[in-house]
Amino acid sequence: MVATEPSGGDAVVVRDLRVRRGGTAVFEGLEVAIPRGRITGLLGPSGCGKTTLMRAIVGVQKIDGGSVTVLGEPAGSAALRRRVAYDTQAASVYGDLTVRQNLAYFARLIGAPRGDVDRVIDQVGLRPQAGQTVASLSGGQENRVSLAVAMLGSPELIVLDEPTVGLDPVLRAELWALFRSLAAGGATLLVSSHVMDEAIRCDRLLLMRAGRLVADTTPAALLADTGESDPDAAFLALIERDAAA
């Protein structure tokens, strides 16, 4: 179940990727391509390799073999520093600074335009909290500050590690609307999750299990291929099929 893309339409190309962590093989020859200008969901249970793959894409994961090409450059290249953003699952901001101070600091680091701080504050819905310290925010609000940092400078590729964890359904819907607007503006988004009902919000799906790519598909094709109407049931059907192969 592989969805094809036009030649030259990929933001990320992973070839024969091999990664070991602590003597354990995470990937043994992984092959993945991520199309430009779309939302690709990276889904699967905890421990399946999602975070390791994202770290390899942004160039902070030591690899043992293979190649990862991002926007035409080797992953981690200096040329990608302002073109690629990574929002980790753990918030990476300063608790003793306000929301605005955090964003102003990171904006200076990457040379983002002066108006970017206000733009991203509004996009993530934190205008009322802009003057509060991050330490005084809720966990969900803190995660939104990290997301805002990732959006500074309008990067071409935004890698988000479970950005909706711990958020209520209303806020999750608002963030997915934001992701959709970013993709409509030309950005490529890679969004990891272990919540299968978020799969239907993506353009493309990469479903992983135990360091392997179980399927490279679309939401409609996933449901049609398994004959299921529920994303969780569809994923379980793929797992069962994979285990029986």
From TrEMBL:
Record-level Gene Ontology MF annotations: ATP binding; ATP hydrolysis activity
Keyword ATP-binding: yes
UniProt keyword ATP-binding present: yes
Sequence ranges assigned to domain ABC transporter in this UniProt record: 12-235
Keywords: ATP-binding, Nucleotide-binding
PROSITE patterns, per database record: ABC_TRANSPORTER_2
PANTHER family: ABC TRANSPORTER G FAMILY MEMBER 20 ISOFORM X1, ATP-BINDING CASSETTE, SUB-FAMILY H, MEMBER 1
Protein name: ABC transporter family protein
